[in-house]
Amino acid sequence: MRPTSPSPRVIAPGSTIGILGGGQLGRMTALAAANLGYKCEIFEPQRGCPASQVSNGHIAGSYDNEADLLRFVSKVDVITLEFENVPVKTLQILESYKPMRPGPKALELSQDRIVEKSFLNNCGIPTAPWAKVETAEEMEMAVEKLGRPSVLKTARFGYDGKGQIKITEGMDVIAAWKDLNKVRCVLEGFVSFTKEISVIVARSATGETKAYEPVENSHKNHILDTTTVPASITDEQAKTAMDYAIKAVEGLELIGLLAVEMFVTTDGEILVNEVAPRPHNSGHWTQDACVTSQFEQLVRAVCGLPLGSVERLGRAEMKNLLGNDINNWPAILAEPGAHLHLYGKAEAKPGRKMGHVNRLFKD
Ligand code: AMP
Fold this sequence. Notes:
Layout: E1 16-20, H1 24-35, E2 39-43, E3 57-59, H2 66-73, E4 78-81, H3 88-95, H4 104-111, H5 113-122, E5 130-133, H6 136-146, E6 150-154, E7 164-167, H7 173-179, E8 185-189, E9 193-203, E10 209-211, E11 215-220, E12 223-229, H8 235-252, E13 256-265, E14 270-276, H9 286-289, H10 294-302, E15 315-322, H11 329-333, E16 338-342, E17 353-361
Parallel strand pairs: 1-2, 1-4, 2-3
Antiparallel strand pairs: 5-8, 6-7, 6-8, 9-10, 9-11, 9-13, 11-12, 12-15, 13-14, 15-17, 16-17
Helix pairs in contact: 1-10, 3-4, 4-5
């Protein structure tokens, strides 16, 4: 018999969680769900994807095929996502059948930098100064307002530094916008920062929120390389960063996780860069260095369970294994204090996230 639910809002262990997207984030969510006695059903076009390898079922459907979506909803009790580029329309269809956590509003926001920055600023959360660019005239006005250097980013579908151009002295700004195919963009003032940090915050179906402490991120070629925790910032900066993350998740009334990436400026200010309504690469350290991992926290949040402790057990570092880095697995396994996580991807293409290692150190 399935465990009984203490309240209609609680989705009890034994139920099935549907996950949109089948990458490593879905895989690690499914593993955490299994630990709590849940089943997972993956919706992802690609067969043999990392999440499907560790889940109960996989629908290799298409996000705009209603019959595929209906097959999916018939198998699940609640739905979450691990991938942001799902059409908002898909979420609107799904939420008319089953609880969709997070819902379309959070997804819409994270897909569009203009909507995202407007929302953050309306919540009183500071970002880099920015201006929208939809015409050549707006491009010129934006550069006049924000100066050079500044950063031109496509409003939609940019990630890991793709869809971005740094506007420098002497550059033909209209040509730069044309290089981005004249799509809707934002121009951001260039932030002089000392550190990039992030906070992952959970909000449960019951409205309870819990934020992990800020972590420090370093990137190589625009891809996350290492996350270090604790971040070397002041207690006041840490509190401000966590307050912004909580404000954002509450403003969105999001159920699930929100990852909030921020800059610490040379003046010591915290500015939010972007948000993602899902587990995040900069939260992988929680798997081995926290009482509750971000993946378990997501399961707890979407199922309406009490959120787990975000207490950190020691100092930690997460390092991504990209492409052929994965070949170091024997040495990593031999290291005391190292926890290896591999994603089951068949081909180690250059720059592809193949796994990560969490290293724990005594405080
Ligand atoms: P994003 O795609 O917005 O996450 O940007 C990718 C990376 O570009 C960030 O992690 C920063 O290192 C850098 N970056 C983005 N926006 C700015 C900015 N306004 N000023 C300075 N650096 C930036």
